[in-house]
Amino acid sequence: MIESIGWGLVFVGIGFIAAGSVGLVRLPDLYCRLHALTKADNLGLGCICSGLALLFGQWIIAIKLLLIWLLVLLTSAAVAHFIARHVLDKERRK
Amino acid sequence: MNMLLWNLFDCVLALLALVLGWRVVSSHDLKRAVVLFIAFGLLMSLIWARLAAPDLALAEAAIGAGLTGALLLSALRQQPASSESPVRSLMDVYGSLVLVLVLGGVMAWALFAAPGMVQGSSSNNPIYLQLEQSGVSNPVTAVLLNFRAYDTLLEIAVLFCVAIGVLAFGRERQHVMPAGPLLGVLMRVLVPLLVVMSSYLLWVGAHAPGGAFQAGAVLAAAGILLHLGGMPTLGMPGPLNLRWLLIAGLACFLLVGLATMLNGASFLTYPQAWTSVLILLIETGAVLSIAATLVLAYRGGGAPLDQPQGEGSHEERL
């Protein structure tokens, strides 16, 4: 039961990341792309990490996966902000 | 079925490496090439992980993708933006083609004719047979710092020469902006984490993937982050301390080697009881030197910030 939930979460996560990648290619401008990329990837990674934690079934690994997810959340949010602000500044200066 | 999936995955990785490599080389836009190169580094780290070489995967991710990417991007920033594509003569193209073919041939020959290659399992591999006497249980660290310590000593010496070269180039990066609120938060969270991570990598290198180069690269990332956030003095110590840091790795290595000689053994033949301590000592020095050299390479050498006198005259000369 737990194993199937774990695999389900991993595949849901893969779906989110795939959707984010499609968004990266298909969406019209940089801000939309950043939005698609960070939102979908963060959620997707969260699903994959929780799925893997269930599959391994060990606390220490679950905590490590949680930390990895939090770190990626923090950096990807910050980096998306930096990129967006950089481009915004550039457009304003024009 | 499972095997087939892995083979498929490997084929995709190999194909991606070729495609990305070609895109990096063929891209006319330098910025695009650099970004693709960073992606290429991450892909290489995945490939190393697939080849069951986690030490290399870590080093590739930290140095190949992270720090080299930062170095290339910062080099690009000082490049005047040029829109026209560089003109390449046919001579250049064919010349480099011949060079690449020769180099590839030599590498392939080296791969297949490598002397002393041990086939098979860990039971008959001399490294694993000697591992118990090496003082560490990670075979990579055992090779790097015990069996082939000479190689690593020379590597550290090469890094030191690089640091001297960077210092001799002597151009200080000028545009250091104070951190905005978001970068400030990021720095407050990430820098302590990076320092802890670096110490962990250094410590864990004795019995699991990790070690001085990876730890040094992670520490250097902390330094570069501080530098980007407008704290160059925190990211980089003053000139005197900097020299101590730069020489730390080589000094530790040589002092340990001399001490073993004074002890009556040959150069870098550790006494059995002290092996793990000495290896940790050498690695700690190496981490500091590697981190300092990498940050220095990013920042550029030259007059330090806390000596406005030297800075001014330097500027005039430029």
Q: Secondary-structure blueprint of this entry?
A:
The complex is a heterodimer of chains A (94) and B (318).
Chain A: H1 2-26, H2 30-56, H3 59-93
Helix pairs in contact in A: 1-2, 2-3
Chain B: H1 2-26, H2 30-50, H3 54-77, H4 90-112, H5 126-130, H6 139-147, H7 149-169, H8 181-204, H9 212-228, H10 232-235, H11 239-262, H12 275-299, H13 308-317
Helix pairs in contact in B: 1-2, 2-3, 3-9, 6-7, 7-11, 7-12, 8-9, 9-12, 11-12
Task: Give the gist of this structure.
Chain A contains three helices and no strands.
Overview of this structure, please?
The complex is a heterodimer of chains A (94) and B (318). Chain A has 94 residues and is an all-alpha fold. Chain A has helices at residues 2-26, 30-56, 59-93. In chain A, helix 1 runs antiparallel to helix 2 and helix 2 (30-56) packs antiparallel against helix 3 (59-93). Chain B is globular, with a radius of gyration of 22 Å. In chain B, 30% of the residues are buried. In chain B, helix 7 packs parallel to helix 12 (275-299) and helix 9 (212-228) packs parallel to helix 12 (275-299). Helices cover 73% and strands 0% of the residues of chain B. The longest helix of chain B has 25 residues, at 2-26. With 318 residues, chain B is an all-alpha fold. The model of chain B is unreliable at 304-318 (pLDDT under 50). Chain B has helices at residues 2-26, 30-50, 54-77, 90-112, 126-130, 139-147, 149-169, 181-204, 212-228, 232-235, 239-262, 275-299, 308-317. Chain B contains 13 helices and no strands. Chain A binds chain B through residues 71, 74-75, 78, 81-82, and chain B through 182-183, 185-186, 189-190, 193.
